[in-house]
Request: fold
Amino acid sequence: MNINTLKIAAAGAALAMATGCSTMGGSSWDNNEPPPPANPNFAAEMNKFNAQFPNEKATKYEDISLNYNNAKKLDERGNCHDLSKHPVVIVLTLDATGKVTRTTTDVEGKKAECFRQAYASAQLPPPPFAPYQKPIRLR
Reply:
């Protein structure tokens, strides 16, 4: 497997949607809601994530951390999903213990800020190295 294939596989695993963690009931979205503005700092964080690969331990950690996120329903903190119909990608920067030390979203806005706050004090399993960039796609 070449480096680009591993990066694509890792990114696919990392950006797999945190499914089964919340419902969409009760939202009052405007079907004509414009997309939120992009965050210019996001690309640098994704570049840091991609630079972590190829690495077998990092690839394995992507599955472990996504399963942990889903089991603990971390994305349900603050009821952020119902704030907008547009998805948010968040990159968590983890220290050696798995504690979130920084959050960066692909977009700005109320929903993105809600997720940044929800994950600001989150604790995930310890990553294979630190700092570790952990992206999650949230619907």
